[in-house]
Write a sequence for this structure.
């Protein structure tokens, strides 16, 4: 009887050890808090604002980032460097079909497809879908404790956002809006 009890105890210890290792090895965490700041550029100036993350997850193998998925609420585009009538006009224009067409495309997504790096410094490859068009991008991501930060550069013309693009209409001169815009992202999980 004593031998049988020690075998059961040994199996229980092994099972618990395996379960603990599995839990620590592969883990997906939900983003609890986020800050997404955009910056767009035009000849002679720039505009900045915010946009809200609807949902997001990051996947890890131990402390190594392995993946992630994010959904962005495009209806939340907000200009922060203007006020009053100018702000209302720009917010409305960014939500219109000239730019993000939020009525038809209220959500954009980013899916991490591969990751390299270690010790909290990673190079991320991802697919970004805006206005139904998907484009592969790469960007650095730093992870320290429970916070991830990243700076992304996105070419809007890859997503059929061509309004006043200098790469398509050379005659715009001082009215051009540059193709690339920046996203500075902070995620807490």
């Amino acid at each position: 009887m004593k031998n049988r009890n020690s075998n059961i105890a040994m199996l229980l210890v092994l099972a618990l050890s395996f379960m603990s290792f599995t839990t620590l090895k592969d883990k997906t965490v939900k983003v609890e808090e986020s800050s997404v700041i955009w910056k767009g550029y035009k000849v002679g100036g720039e505009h900045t604002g915010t946009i809200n993350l609807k949902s997001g997850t990051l996947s890890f193998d131990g402390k190594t980032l392995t993946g992630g998925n994010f959904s962005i609420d495009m209806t939340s585009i907000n200009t922060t460097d203007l006020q009053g009538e100018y702000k209302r006009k720009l917010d409305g224009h960014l939500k219109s079909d000239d730019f993000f067409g939020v009525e038809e495309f209220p959500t954009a997504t980013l899916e991490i497809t591969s990751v390299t790096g270690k010790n909290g410094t990673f190079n991320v490859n991802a697919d970004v879908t805006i206005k139904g068009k998907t484009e592969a991008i790469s960007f650095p991501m730093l992870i320290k404790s429970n916070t991830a930060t990243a700076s992304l550069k996105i070419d809007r013309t890859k997503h059929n956002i061509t309004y006043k693009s200098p790469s398509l209409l050379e005659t715009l001169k001082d009215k051009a809006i540059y193709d690339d815009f920046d996203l500075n992202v902070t995620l807490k999980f």
